[in-house]
Each structure stands twice: as C-alpha cells, then as structure tokens.
Amino acid sequence: MENFEFCSPTKIIFGRGMESRVGAETKKYANKVLLHYSGGSIKKSGLYEKVTQSLREAGVEFVELGGVQPNPRLSLVREGIALCREHKLEMVLAVGGGSVIDSAKAIALGVPYSGDVWDFFANRAVPAEALPKGVVLTIPAAGSEASKSAVITNEDGWYKWGLNVELNRPQFAIMNPELTFTLPPYQTACGAVDIMAHIMERYFTNVTDVDLTDRLCEGALKSMIRNTLIAIKEPDNYAARAEMMWAGTLAHNDLLGTGRIGDWAAHMIEQEISAIYDVAHGAGLAVVFPAWMKYTFKRNLNTFIKFAVRVWDVDYDFDQPERTAWEGIRRLEDFYRQIGMPVTLAELGVPDDRLEEMARKAMKPWLTSVGAVSQFTSEDILEVLKLAR
Ligand code: NZQ
Ligand code: ZN
Fold it and tell me: Domain residues for 190?
C-alpha cells in the first residue's frame, strides 16, 4: 500500500425530501448566491420551485444562471464569474448533475482570481482560493458532488480539460434519490458506466497489498451491476436509486483509491471524444474502457483475473489464465450492452477519421505519458482508439 492523505470534507445530506434543507444549509455560508442549473429537467420536475422556495424561506438572495449543457462550456463559466462579481455573490449553488457542478466549481475558482479562469485548467496557474459551493444532485454519475475535480470544455479549439484541486470540493451536497426517478434509461446507464469507471480506474493498479480497497471496489462494482439493472427496469425503485446515488459519491470522493495509484488513461482518452463529438461522458467510457482493457490486460494480468473472478464470478482457467481475464472483459461489455450502452465508436456515432488528432490531444502539453498501469504514449492511445472502432 502507498502512503496517502484522505480528506473528504463535503457534508452529505442524504434521503427523501432533503432538498427542503437547501436554504438553511446555504445560509450558513452566504446571504447572496449564484443559483446555477441547466434549465431542462429541474424545471420539469418541480425541483426548481422547491429550491427557490427554500432559499427564500431562509432569507437567501439569489441571482440565476441557467443554460449549462452537458460537457459544460467555458463561455458560460466566464458569464457566471462576471455575474458573481457584478452582484457581489458569496457562493455558488449548483442544482443538477456533474456538468452543472463542474461549471459551478469553475465559477467559484474564477471569481477571486485576477486572471482568466482557463489558466487553472491549462496548468498555467494554481488556484489559491474559491467561493464556497453547495450542491443539490439530480443524477448519480460524475461524483462531482464530493470530488476534487472539475472538467470544462473550451470551445476555442474544443479542449476538454480537468482540474484536480482540494479547493474544488463542495461544502455540502444534498442527495435525494427520489430526484433521480425522472432519469431516462439512457442517462441512468451513462451514470452507471461513469460510476463503475471511477471505481475501475482506481481498481486497476500496479500497487500491491491493497486488499481492503480491492474488496471495497469489488463490492461497490457488484452492487452497481445489481442495482443498475433494477433501476433501468423500475425507474422509481427508491432502494436501487439510493444505492446508485451513494455509490456515485463513494466511487469518486477518493475513499476507494486510498493507498493505490489509479490509472485514468480511459478517462483521458474519453475526454477527447466528448470534447469533439459532444457525446455523453458515460457512453464514451462504455466504448473506451473495454478497448483500454483489451490493450493493456497482459501488463497487469493478476488484477484483471481478480476482477473477472471476484466481480463477474468467472471460473479461473488453470490451463490458460489469460482466458479468465478476457472473459471478465467480455462480461463487462455484455453488461454495457444489456443496459443499452454502445461499446464501439461506430455505435456511439463517432467516425474514425480523427483518431490521430484525439490521440495527440490526449497527451496534454505538460504530460510525458498517460496512465499508470502502463505509461501510454500517443501511439498507444491511437491503438486503444483503433480497438474501439
Ligand atoms: O440538463 P438537464 O435537462 O438537467 O438534463 C440532464 C442532462 O441532459 C439530464 N438529467 C440530470 N438530472 C436529471 C436529468 N434528466 C432527468 N431527470 C434528472 N433528475 O442528464 C443529462 C446529463 O447531465 P450531466 O450533468 O451532463 O451528467 P453527469 O453528471 O454525467 O456529468 C457529466 C459531466 O461531468 C464530467 C464529465 O466529463 C461531463 O462533462 N465529469 C466530472 C467529474 C468530476 N467533476 O469529478 C468526473 C467525471 O469523470 C466526469 O469527467
Ligand atoms: Zn468519469
């Protein structure tokens, strides 16, 4: 096990009806806030009314900024920063999914900074302060409600880059599984793929003697497989939605990665796909993750065998252990298909004429390699993308 620091300061307020507490919780940090959302689902579901009523009851003034799109854009972040400065807002309240939360995180970093917020994402500056952030989560997926990451798309060149700093962690996250009943099966599945990917990015490691977190990861994956199948068939099954929602947070608040060195190559490759083609992050991962596994499993065969045997109940093949690992990858792909996810670039609707550009862009200017199980060059990334066709 590696040495580690673990700090997950986000206060989680979980369960039925908990969104009614948003006003009182926000009031602990601010009197005037930016209310940030996309505009679609929260208005249809009535959540917008509940949140604004709770803010009014608590005496919290708010200025609104809707319009966040999946793969949130830098231009809206800049608009949010300007609004916060103009109205002297003290906090950003995100009501929505990972895209809204990430946009809120970027706004919160940009307000006290004298330069352009993109400097942080482009590795040109390190943030020193941020406004506080609160979250009302509507989709279990990105784990942004308690993570240190924010991922923003710069329309100038279509760069989708992430920033990992402790300052990004929200002060609180309100999570009512009932708010996820309205998720269509496709978004439920995209979220499940992302949650499982966050676990697997940490699970596939070259670090040894990490038995506790191995088993926590395996348990979380098994629970996700079971509950995703239920939630897709029964969208208003509270128990299944609740398991998924909590799994989404635990998958990405770093608990499952303690003492390990995660890989993250699949995520970095997927970001290039969603940057250019604006596909859902989870759907992109359903395509990239199996391809990454096929390309890399021989470099860490033991862990891939462990994954097959313990997560997918594959019989160990004593004559040809590689077949055991392969069967684990096949069952993951089958599961993705079963929940309606694409497993090839073609099924995702992504043509194969810009693979080299994506492979080149995945190797950010400040990186010498991508991934930890095997250090990928852009040539390796291109091979993964070709396997994903
Ligand atoms: O915009 P609305 O109308 O709300 O529709 C959204 C959107 O179309 C819909 N949705 C959300 N809650 C709903 C709902 N529809 C019905 N009922 C509800 N309750 O779902 C769609 C996707 O929303 P989005 O916020 O984009 O999803 P997600 O949470 O998957 O976030 C994806 C973004 O997060 C980034 C991704 O790259 C992507 O940009 N990530 C952020 C991470 C982080 N900050 O830690 C880590 C992840 O690896 C990921 O990269
Ligand atoms: Zn992800």
Answer: 185-387
